[in-house]
Fold:
Amino acid sequence: MTASRAPLTRDSLRLKITVQRVRMDGTEFRVVSPAKPLKNGAFYRSRRSLDLYVDRPDGHRIGTLFLLAARSPRTLVHLPMRTTATAPGVGWEDEKPLDLVLAHRAVQFRPTRWKKLRERLTAGNAPRETRTASVPESDLQAGHASGRAPWSDPDSSGLRQDEFAETLFLTGTTPALREAARQVFAVTEEGPPAAASGLYIAGGCNYHVCRGLFTWEELQAGGWDELHIEFSPPWAK
Structure:
């Protein structure tokens, strides 16, 4: 499946990104990252799940990066999140921070190559350019009329999980990546009013706003972990 080429409009979602191109083993890889580090976006693995915490601004950035990955069948979208400030209200005993890489299924990148590629990206002399990326807001509604998750469609598939070198890779089709973006944006829209109610407890059962990226059927079939997205009021200034 190829990525959508819907026209960009004034209502497009925009964010600053850095673009790097690295040649490795005869292949050139294009890697996109947020131009500025995330302040209020944190990602952890615990014994019970994978947990992504966002506030509204950084949640919008992360959701837009999911949409960008959905449109970019030749790009790896890298979110360096291991060094962001710890989200409040969390702290499972075995919690481990992770980076996140989003990729369209067409990229066909082997996660075992990531550590070597990351070393090239973070080298002091690695060239990079800053750009403004735009994604149409219509991508959030595209293909969503049925109300079903895209992985229930036999012509699609869910987001594959692979973990390597302290990084989780989420790889999938355009519909699957867009559905994940919708869940992130839903958390950023529903979270602030809930937090303003005074009854909000980050990490508290039934007292926070969250969404999951996988159905139980898919978790069982793929042997993957639950990926839980939770709103957390801004914690870094």
